[in-house]
Write a structure and sequence with these properties.
The protein is built from four helices and nine strands, in the order αααβββββββββα. It has a five-stranded mixed β-sheet, covered by helices on one side.
Length: about 200
């Protein structure tokens, strides 16, 4: 057994396999880590359902028609995930206090059932506290059957207290696969030294 471990090729193959498994693990841990860190720091925690605001609360103060904000929408998919995600509206304008609605389209390109999670981010990040979500697909995991396409709704508003300097805000979602079966399969393929 000692001769196997001292063999440079086997040692290198073991190290590379461990690195691949570690990278898969890190990729799957990104969504919960993101939410944990942002929650602890109090920044950009837009995917948390506890931040949901009722429409009545938003409309209670009326609409501020003196300040128009342009919202831009973007989407990315976590590297290697077999999905497509795109906003059906790329840009819209609204007044603070006005409730707007738009949709994203997600498609599962694989032949497997999947469970996804969308992680939001806002640019500039300081404007994130003024973005108020009434309803968002990011509040919960989204199951997708093989080949399924689904429209996912977002209802939101901009807080009336937003400073005038914020004229353009970009809301982006990163779609992640929460299924860990690929990680388990990669771990099962990892070479093991004899006798272990």
């Amino acid at each position: 057994m000692r001769s196997l471990i001292s063999n440079p090729r086997i040692r290198m193959a073991s190290l590379l396999s461990a690195l691949v498994v570690g990278m898969f693990g890190f990729g799957f841990a990104l969504a919960p880590l993101y939410q944990l860190i942002c929650g602890a720091l109090g920044i950009n925690s837009l995917g948390n359902a506890s931040n949901q605001v009722s429409e009545e609360t938003i409309t209670r103060g009326g609409v501020d028609s003196s300040h128009r904000v342009t919202m831009e929408f973007d989407a990315t998919v976590n590297a290697g995930a077999p999905f497509e995600l795109r906003p059906l509206t790329r840009k819209l304008q609204l007044f603070p206090g006005q409730v707007m609605e738009m949709e994203y389209l997600v498609t599962n390109l694989s032949d497997q059932h999947a469970i996804t999670q969308s992680v939001p981010s806002v640019t500039p990040w300081q404007a994130g506290e003024y973005l108020k979500k009434v309803e968002c697909f990011c509040f919960a995991q989204q199951p997708l059957d093989a080949g399924e396409s689904k429209r996912m709704r977002l209802r939101f508003s901009i807080d009336r207290n937003i400073p005038q300097e914020y004229k353009v805000i970009t809301l982006s979602y990163t779609l992640m696969d929460t299924d860990r079966t690929q990680l388990k399969q990669a771990s099962a393929l990892e070479p093991r030294a004899e006798g272990s």
